[in-house]
């Protein structure tokens, strides 16, 4: 989930002429892969002898202040602690086909990168296909369980559990008994966020009103990278009486924050602690964020690769595993933290089960 910030890509020496040639081809319907070095985002082969890691971002890439940036943070930690020999980070384009995603993964595999991490469920079919073609390479995919093979690790999260906590926070902080949810694209993954958020809000106030708006429907995934649409959706909710709006919309979330500031309302971030990463003038309206620790999952996978202990199949990062949580930056939920932590412990213990779908 994602926000395009000046197309900041990173790469290291991957059969240079192959990638540079690929970057010079293609048109707007199938955005091409770029492989330009980018300062700290690259690592030199001469500096370490560890693995060569390839990472394929979803739309927006490094700099989205959300989902992709969390994956990038995990890669950065691995660079610092695991002695990676090379890294190559490649970014997806808006509206591209699965064939373009397959080619991105093949470029990495052909360049000798192993392991390769795909960020986002949109890589499901491409990862499954390319992993079959390169059985000796380890692949990981974030947010997808459908791509299954002996060399694929599926890194999943209990987004509904984290969303329950911020839903409870929204209800506890709402003065109008009216909150909202803006989803980027109406797919099962984002429905998990919605389901948890509504359950959390209604656990606090059974009669609370929850507005729901999705920005686009598949196969249109631009809802994850359209701040203008996010702003319009949130404006409608604030105008209708909501005073807290939660966004699970990647790069479109910046527009939700803008609407919250204009309406003198509050917003809830997603994936990263967005009170730290959003534009400075918007950070104050973000009362909390549902933190989804993609960085932890990426680092764990890379560490397991260096110790020859990669596990194929599903690993789920839930509240019990500290894979999701809520943030407290800014102190705006300090007054309700004890109540949120009470809910958190009930979920961890199994006393409270959070729904992962709305119907």
Automatic annotation (TrEMBL):
Region described as Disordered: 25-44
Superkingdom classification of source: Bacteria
Membrane topology field: Lipid-anchor
Signal sequence region: 1-24
Cell compartment(s), UniProt: Cell membrane
A Pfam family the protein falls into: Bmp
Annotated organism of origin: Streptosporangium longisporum
Protein name: BMP family ABC transporter substrate-binding protein
UniProt cross-references to PANTHER family, sorted A to Z: ABC TRANSPORTER GUANOSINE-BINDING PROTEIN NUPN, TRANSCRIPTIONAL ACTIVATOR PROTEIN MED
Highest classification ranks of the organism: Bacteria, Bacillati, Actinomycetota, Actinomycetes, Streptosporangiales
Keyword flag Membrane: yes
Similarity annotation: Belongs to the BMP lipoprotein family.
InterPro entries assigned to the protein according to its UniProt record, in alphabetical order: BMP_lipoprotein, Peripla_BP_I, PnrA-like
